[in-house]
């Protein structure tokens, strides 16, 4: 995967995560982060889950009940 695409997808995943965690604290900032993430994902025609899979991150969580 080219470096620019990987960087853009990593940024999109980080912005999505930020958006989720700050939704209650600052809804306006959360919405802006979500929009920035969406803009990057649209460029590569992927959704957040596909970005995580493409980047091969987000494996099983050892703290998860289903692990």
UniProtKB/TrEMBL annotation:
Which superkingdom, per the lineage?
Archaea
The protein here is known as Uncharacterized protein
């Amino acid at each position: 995967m080219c470096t620019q695409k990987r960087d853009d997808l990593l940024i999109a995943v980080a912005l999505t995560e930020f958006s989720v965690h700050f939704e209650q604290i600052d809804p306006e900032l959360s919405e802006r982060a979500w929009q920035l993430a969406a803009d990057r994902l649209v460029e590569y025609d992927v959704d957040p889950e596909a970005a995580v899979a493409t980047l091969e991150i987000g494996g099983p969580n050892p703290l998860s009940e289903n692990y």
